[in-house]
Amino acid sequence: MVTGVSLEDAEWVVGLAGHTGVESVERLAGGWDNSNHRICLAGGSSLVLKIWQAQSVLEDVETVIQRHIWIDGNGIPTAVPMMLETGARYAVRDGVAWTLLPFIEGGHLGSDAASLTSLGAVMARMHEAPTAECFPTEFTMGWTLFERMFAHAEESGEWTPFPWMLRGESAALRESIPAGLPQGILHGDLFPDNVLGSEGEVTAILDLEEAWIGPRAFDLVMAYVGFGWDGGEPSEERWQALLSGYQSVRSLTEDEWSALPNLHRYATLSIAAWRYWKHNMSQPEEELADRYLEMVERLDVPLPFMENQR
């Protein structure tokens, strides 16, 4: 895994985009799988270097880049990797893809009402965009990951409490979430480190590695999982801000309203499962091993404002 970028490395990659004069390199916050680094250039401008260490197959990187190009072409604010002098939008260093992105001022989106209203509206516009083949129809952090975890537990003979619980929850949710909900392009992981904002407005939707074509309402509740809790408690105000922004673009159907609680439970379990898989199964890290429990503990917290509204 890449942990640092030297000035020499940075000079090499910016040179491929026709720039010179690297003054400093700083790792940016976020990026659990792929790291992002701010490259400051002489003259005061900056670029962002994204290192795709989680994608061992270059075709997967190309597919994600195509997703960014697609939503950008449909009016959704995002950051598209720059074209390099090689004619590609990525370079390869030590077998890993590197991309350069424009640096967008403002930082990660806040959780204030204006910011979440903006996020809801941008999300709904993305859901209304036409679909494309670069988006899969399966959510990589959902049922697919659950089944991989069950297979791992079976092979290792280590059915610890969380996989056991997840198997029962998964079976129940598969029965409870209706087929035929309105579909669209979903981000799939709308957490603060994947959205940039400034002065109450979304400036860029980032990191489409988990994007897929699925039930539109799922993205809405996933955004609430990412942005909606304040100090360990669910915030109705944040939900209302997301919802009002979303419904300013498209209104939820009756079936979507009815499905919200189960979709929210599925979204919460998906984040718990990803954290458990990453920190306990795939790349065990003792200091992060309990990170999934934040999501597990939320499962028992009632959300009446999500369940009793039309």
Describe this structure in words.
This protein has 310 residues and is an alpha+beta fold. The chain has two domains: 7-102, Phosphorylase Kinase, domain 1; 113-307, Aminoglycoside phosphotransferase (APH), C-terminal lobe (Aminoglycoside 3'-phosphotransferase, Chain: A, domain 2, Alpha-Beta Complex). The chain is built from ten helices and eleven strands. The chain has helices at residues 7-15, 58-73, 113-128, 143-156, 161-176, 216-227, 236-247, 254-282, 293-298, 304-307, and strands spanning 22-27, 35-41, 46-51, 91-93, 96-102, 183-186, 195-198, 201-205, 212-215, 229-230, 233-234. A five-stranded antiparallel beta sheet has the order 1-2-3-5-4, covered by helices on one side. A two-stranded antiparallel sheet has the order 6-9. Strands 7-8 form a two-stranded antiparallel sheet. Helix 4 packs antiparallel against helix 5. The longest helix has 29 residues, at 254-282. The radius of gyration is 20 Å and the shape is globular. The N and C termini lie far apart (47 Å). The model has no long low-confidence stretch (mean pLDDT 95). It comes from marine metagenome. GO terms for molecular function: amino acid kinase activity. Belongs to the pseudomonas-type ThrB family. This is Aminoglycoside phosphotransferase domain-containing protein. Residues 25-250 form the Aminoglycoside phosphotransferase domain.
